[in-house]
């Protein structure tokens, strides 16, 4: 996902996981927002975070 634009840090400060309401971390390499608490990775497409649980990838331990 190297061609994805970086996410605005101000946006990252206000976004939370829709399931846990917990913080998210940005994984630039994979173009995802990570919710450690939920064990999910939300995709970012065309610079837009897709904050739907059904679109998220389950993180493997």
Automatic annotation (TrEMBL):
A Pfam short name: Trm112p
Source domain of life: Bacteria
SUPFAM superfamilies xref list: Trm112p-like
Annotated InterPro entries: Trm112-like
Family from the record: Belongs to the UPF0434 family.
HAMAP family for this protein: UPF0434
The name this protein goes by in its record: UPF0434 protein GCM10010909_32280
Source organism per UniProt: Acidocella aquatica
């Amino acid at each position: 996902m190297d061609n994805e634009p970086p996410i605005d840090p101000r946006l990252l400060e206000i976004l939370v996981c829709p399931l846990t309401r917990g913080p998210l971390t940005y994984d630039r390499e994979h173009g995802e927002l990570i919710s450690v608490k939920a064990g999910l990775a939300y995709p970012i497409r065309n610079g837009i975070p897709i904050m739907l649980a059904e679109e998220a990838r389950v993180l493997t331990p």
